[in-house]
């Protein structure tokens, strides 16, 4: 008998637990927005920028530890710089800001 | 080799084709190794019930499954442990001679698995291959690990 | 009591169903209230599962044999430590442990989704709720730990092989690994469902995978040590289905841990990574299923145990669902860049992945071979150690080689001059090691010589990596050598932690080669006073000694041992018989030498006339196998230690781009 009583208390407790958030009416703050296409594009560009910057750091290390020669280093650095710059420019265009305003 | 910097954008494309070929070759060689080995290396043996094993596997290496009905002798003796296994469903039996380590749970009534060669209706057990199947009173996992 | 436990699990199952429903409502209806309700449901499941755990453990320690499981796997005479470990010795008990770990992991994973992953929350809750629901269903219907009976006076006791201290660590470690793989899988799937194909989920998954993978690795080694010392047939790995069950997800997770680096650095292999993590999780479920259904010992047993069908359906849902989601999101998953050269670090990662997945596939093939042959209408056939060993060698040696090559090759491409420079000394080291092995008479096994040379080569490249990095820091930043070395690791934890793991693998390989390819063995029937020689050692049989333990009696052979002519005292391999459990167990005697080899003695039988059948091995370098576990764990620890720089970078990126669902949901 006490077993059933304990179970009933547990059942009521969990129902209250999950129902609680739903009891009050939805407000504007409860609305979950989806990521927009534009946000996704910007995110991809930011990721691209960060990847290129990280790659630059890594190239520096690889060069210092003689994993890549001077010639390759110069070329790859130029390419990663161009990649980072392209990403930043594209990001600025997306944000519609002048280059100077970009963070 | 690119002569001018302007030509570099094409380079990745060319290298990419190249790598696709190498990756394809690598996958092919892995699969090839696999196929050739499984086809030609004779690593598998049939797993037979006692009734099955009594029908035309003489002279072959098999893995035999059955229930122990009687056991005499000692695996520590030069003559070895002699026991009889019976089929799970029929009355067919096969005698087994075995030397080597005997699993902890071995006794009459247990289901066992043993590797060996069938010779004239008797199984000459390969040393150290005798394994007992999980007796139902334990649901545990690892009794078969004695199989080395 | 049992009723409360069973009822708590039923309520938890209902909550799991609710979590899935409310999570999906929140994800599609975009209502944060449902997300909160779904998260509350997960907390509710935790509370209810803890109630069930408490009742189950209480029943075990109070010897309440009206619980079927308690009666089946414990007894009054069982020492208290094994009472605790018996909690996960049974099928239902281990599933209870599974769900407990899963729900704790899920709640931690949810907390970790704050920076940039808020949008994933509803999906994540729904997926984790579904996984929890599956295990709760198993616990409620086919494998209830709370099934009752009329209490017998005493229980059956625990299988003696499981009455071993390793049972306190080995199964929980494996479970932490198996369950841990659920989290990266859920993150990956949630990210795809939410359309968030950026690398954020990869960053979050990587750490979870590392932790799970680390536990799986350590758990396997603990299991090997258990098998070595307790099951006692003289080896540490038998390619048993239960062992393979843990190895397969570990191999696939290893592949994932390498290929995520390529995605994080280069934006490539996106689809491949999702497939890998889904595969690793599916294999972890498959592993649980293998250990728990008895499918491989007999197909008939499997058909009779209905738990098998639950797992098969779950596997189909996991594989089919992941495939469908990947296919749906394929347009978003284009690679940002392409591999430029076959001789580049990204290419070595790719080959490493092919080998690891190939190895996992070969093991899977071997495990399923009996079922496959039966399915095509042939007599059931099985494969054993030689099959698995072939692939371990055929795919393992190239993997070891790549482990040495990869770090020295730059991203994108490497020039010939650089390669010559980087590989000269490691190649010399490898060749010298191979020649030395042959010169010292170890040429009997060509695979071992090959593996030994490759190990030397790879060790040399890893050492040179540490040396070069330290030297560069010393030169550029003017740091002292020690500071430079410390900061080198501290500032590039993943890279150098990875190298430490690699060293652990090499140590393991050397130990495995030494102890298997170069072991010596001898066996014989000994009367008192007779001697058995094995390698450098001799064993002289003195007599049999009997002793009493808490729940067993033991008979041991006393053997005076010498090694290289020096006495090393007595070795006492024995056999214990457990009256309650009605079984005996082998107690092997092991003497570890200063060079890391083991003299390993098994008592196979005691004859009526007092003669003993003894088997003895000398296994060189076997200690390295256990030592490798410590190195491995250290490497994993270095890798998972929080990286503040990375955390800051991610925070900044997502602070710049405030995304949906980042509010305090």
Class from helix and strand fractions of chain B: alpha+beta
**What fraction, in percent, of the residue positions of chain C are helical?**
55-70%
Architecture (CATH level 2) name of the largest domain in chain B = Beta Barrel
Q: How many helical stretches of chain C? A: 22
Could you name the CATH homologous superfamily of the largest domain in chain B? Nucleic acid-binding proteins
Strand content of chain B: 25-35%
Note the total helix count of chain B. Answer: 2
Which topology of the largest domain in chain B does CATH recognise?
A: OB fold (Dihydrolipoamide Acetyltransferase, E2P)
Low-confidence runs of at least 5 consecutive residues of chain B: 1-13, 135-148
Overall structural class of chain C, as computed from helix and strand content, comes to: alpha+beta
* Overall pLDDT of chain B: 74
Order of strands in the sheet with most strands of chain B: 2-3-4-6-5
Question: What is the percent of helical residues of chain B?
Answer: 10-25%
Characterise the protein shown here.
The complex is a heterotrimer of chains A (103), B (148) and C (665). Chain A is mainly α. Helices cover 74% and strands 0% of the residues of chain A. Chain A is built from three helices and no strands. Chain A has helices at 2-23, 37-64, 70-95. The N and C termini of chain A lie far apart (67 Å). Chain B has 148 residues and is α+β, with helices and mostly antiparallel strands. Chain B has two domains: 8-40; 47-146, OB fold (Dihydrolipoamide Acetyltransferase, E2P), CATH 2.40.50.140. Chain C has 665 residues and is α+β, with helices and mostly antiparallel strands. Chain C has helices spanning 2-29, 32-61, 68-73, 80-85, 91-111, 114-117, 121-140, 170-180, 182-193, 200-231, 241-266, 270-293, 299-304, 307-329, 345-375, 385-405, 416-439, 446-477, 481-491, 493-517, 623-640, 644-656; strands spanning 381-383, 520-526, 531-534, 537-548, 553-563, 566-571, 574-578, 583-587, 589-592, 598-606, 612-619. In chain C, strands 3, 4, 5, 6, 7 and 8 form a six-stranded antiparallel β-sheet that branches. A four-stranded antiparallel β-sheet of chain C has the order 2-11-10-9. In chain C, a hairpin with a 5-residue loop joins strand 9 (589-592) and strand 10. In chain C, helix 1 runs antiparallel to helix 2, helix 11 runs antiparallel to helix 15 and helix 12 (270-293) runs antiparallel to helix 14 (307-329). Chains B and C meet through helix 1 and strand 1 of B and helix 11, helix 15, strand 1, helix 16 and strand 8 of C. Strand 1 of chain B pairs antiparallel with strand 1 of chain C.
């Amino acid at each position: 008998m006490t077993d059933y009583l304990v179970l009933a208390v547990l059942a009521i407790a969990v129902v209250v637990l999950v129902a609680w958030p739903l009891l009050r009416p939805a407000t504007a703050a409860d609305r979950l927005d989806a990521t927009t296409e534009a946000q996704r594009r910007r995110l991809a560009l930011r990721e691209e920028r960060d990847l290129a910057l990280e790659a630059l750091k890594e190239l520096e290390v690889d060069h210092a530890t003689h994993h890549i020669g001077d010639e390759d280093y110069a070329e790859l650095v130029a390419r990663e710089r161009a990649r980072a710059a392209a990403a930043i420019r594209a990001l600025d265009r997306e944000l519609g800001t002048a280059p100077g305003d970009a963070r | 080799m690119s002569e001018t910097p302007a030509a570099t954008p094409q380079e990745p494309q060319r290298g990419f084709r190249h790598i696709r070929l190498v990756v394809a070759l690598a996958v092919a060689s892995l699969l090839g190794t696999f196929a050739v080995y499984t086809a030609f290396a004779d690593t598998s043996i049939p797993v037979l019930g006692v009734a099955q094993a009594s029908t035309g596997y003489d002279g072959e290496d098999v893995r035999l499954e059955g229930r122990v009905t009687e056991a005499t002798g000692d695996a520590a003796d030069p003559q070895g442990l002699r026991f009889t296994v019976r089929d799970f469903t029929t009355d067919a039996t096969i005698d087994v001679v075995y030397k080597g380590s005997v699993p902890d749970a071995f006794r009459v009534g247990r289901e066992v698995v043993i590797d060996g060669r069938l010779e004239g209706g008797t199984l000459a057990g390969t040393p150290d291959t005798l394994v007992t199947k999980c007796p139902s009173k334990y649901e545990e996992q690892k009794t078969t690990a004695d199989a080395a | 009591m049992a009723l409360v436990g069973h009822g708590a699990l039923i309520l938890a199952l209902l909550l799991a169903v609710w979590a899935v429903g409310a999570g999906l409502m929140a994800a599609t209806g975009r209502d944060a209230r449902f997300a909160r309700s779904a998260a509350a449901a997960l907390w509710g499941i935790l509370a209810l599962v803890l109630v069930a755990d408490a009742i189950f453990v209480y029943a075990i320690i109070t010897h309440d044999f009206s619980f079927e499981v308690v009666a089946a796997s414990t007894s009054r005479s069982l020492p208290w430590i094994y009472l605790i470990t018996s909690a996960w010795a049974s099928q239902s008990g281990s599933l209870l442990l599974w769900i407990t770990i899963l729900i704790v992991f899920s709640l931690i994973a949810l907390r970790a989704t704050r920076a940039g992953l808020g949008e994933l929350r509803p999906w994540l809750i729904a997926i984790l709720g579904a996984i929890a629901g599956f295990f709760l269903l198993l616990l409620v219907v086919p494998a209830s730990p709370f099934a009752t009976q009329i209490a017998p006076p005493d229980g059956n006791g625990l299988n003696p092989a499981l009455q071993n201290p390793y049972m306190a660590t080995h199964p929980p470690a494996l479970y932490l690994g198996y369950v841990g793989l659920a989290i990266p899988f859920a993150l990956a799937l949630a990210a795809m469902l939410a359309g968030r194909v950026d690398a954020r989920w990869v960053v979050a998954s990587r750490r979870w995978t590392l932790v799970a993978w680390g536990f799986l690795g350590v758990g396997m080694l603990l299991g090997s040590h258990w098998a070595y010392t307790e099951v006692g047939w003289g080896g540490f790995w038998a390619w048993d289905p239960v062992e393979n069950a843990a190895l397969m997800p570990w191999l696939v997770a290893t592949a994932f841990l390498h290929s995520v680096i390529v995605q994080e650095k280069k934006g490539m292999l996106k689809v491949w990574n999702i497939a890998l993590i889904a595969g690793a999780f599916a294999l972890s479920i498959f592993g649980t299923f293998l250990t728990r259904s008895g499918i491989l010992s007999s197909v008939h047993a499997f058909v009779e145990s209905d738990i098998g069908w639950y797992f098969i359906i779950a596997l189909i849902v996991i594989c089919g669902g992941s495939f469908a989601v990947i296919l749906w999101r394929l347009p978003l998953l284009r690679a940002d860049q392409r591999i430029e050269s076959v001789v580049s670090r990204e290419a070595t990662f790719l080959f490493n992945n092919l080998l690891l997945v190939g190895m996992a596939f070969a093991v899977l093939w071997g495990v399923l071979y009996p079922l496959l042959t039966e399915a095509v209408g042939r007599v059931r056939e099985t494969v054993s150690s030689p099959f698995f060993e072939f692939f371990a060698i055929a795919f393992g040696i190239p993997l070891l080689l790549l482990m040495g090559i990869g770090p020295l090759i730059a991203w994108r491409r490497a020039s010939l001059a650089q390669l010559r420079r980087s590989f000269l000394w490691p190649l010399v080291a490898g060749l010298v090691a191979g020649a030395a092995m042959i010169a010292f008479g170890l040429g009997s096994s060509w695979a071992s010589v090959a593996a030994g040379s490759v190990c030397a080569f790879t060790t040399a490249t890893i050492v040179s990596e540490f040396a070069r990095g330290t030297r560069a820091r010393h030169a550029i930043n003017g740091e002292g050598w020690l500071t430079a070395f410390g900061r080198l690791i501290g500032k590039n934890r993943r890279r150098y932690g990875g190298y430490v793991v690699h060293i652990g693998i090499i140590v393991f390989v050397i130990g495995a080669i030494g102890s298997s390819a170069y072991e010596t063995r001898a066996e014989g029937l000994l009367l008192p006073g007779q001697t058995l020689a094995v390698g450098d050692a001799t064993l002289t049989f003195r007599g049999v000694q009997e002793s009493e333990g808490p729940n067993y009696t033991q008979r041991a052979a006393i053997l005076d041992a010498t090694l290289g002519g020096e006495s090393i005292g007595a070795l006492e391999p024995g056999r214990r018989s457990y009256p309650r459990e009605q079984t005996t167990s082998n107690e092997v005697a092991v003497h570890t030498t200063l060079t890391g080899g083991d003299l390993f003695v098994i008592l196979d039988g005691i004859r009526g006339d007092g003669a003993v059948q003894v088997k003895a091995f000398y296994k060189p370098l076997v200690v390295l196998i256990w030592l490798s576990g410590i190195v491995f764990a250290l490497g994993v620890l270095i890798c998972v230690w929080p990286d503040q720089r990375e955390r800051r970078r991610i925070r900044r990126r997502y602070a710049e781009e405030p995304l949906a669902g980042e509010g305090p949901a």
